[in-house]
Amino acid sequence: MIKQLPIFLSGAGKRDVRTQFAALCYRVRKNKVRVLMITSRGTQRWIVPKGWPMDGVTPAASAAQEAWEEAGVRGTPDDRCLGIFSYSKDADDLGALPCLAMVYAVKVEALADDYPEAGQRQRKWMSRKKASRLVDEPELARILRDFDPRAQGGSS
Length: 156
Fold this sequence. Notes:
This protein has three helices and seven strands, in the order ββββαβββαα. By secondary structure, the chain is an alpha+beta fold. About 30% of the residues are buried.
């Protein structure tokens, strides 16, 4: 397998980059896959953790960092992109920005009670099917529904 390389943003600002990296946080217990969903800070919609690229960091590691900041997840990311979904991000000063989010699986090893955005979001374990019904983005719903780490021969 090809090793993922870090991204270098040299001169690019958050407002210039419209690609984000998202974490599909999961665990397998008694052969059942559960995904960890969080609420957005503004509208309280169910989403997956996601954020902007970080200079010198791989996309998968960026997704894992967002999982930590937004959901208190300590886990191992998989370098393989599960898929891409599109959405509009509300940027106060710029209006709605069209964004593409690349999704990476993060196997959850521990959940912290104290993390950067604790108290700003809810988090909840749920089935892939339920999570797929609760998200607004059709492509993300498909990624959630189709995800099965047991069948991917990777980080299960």
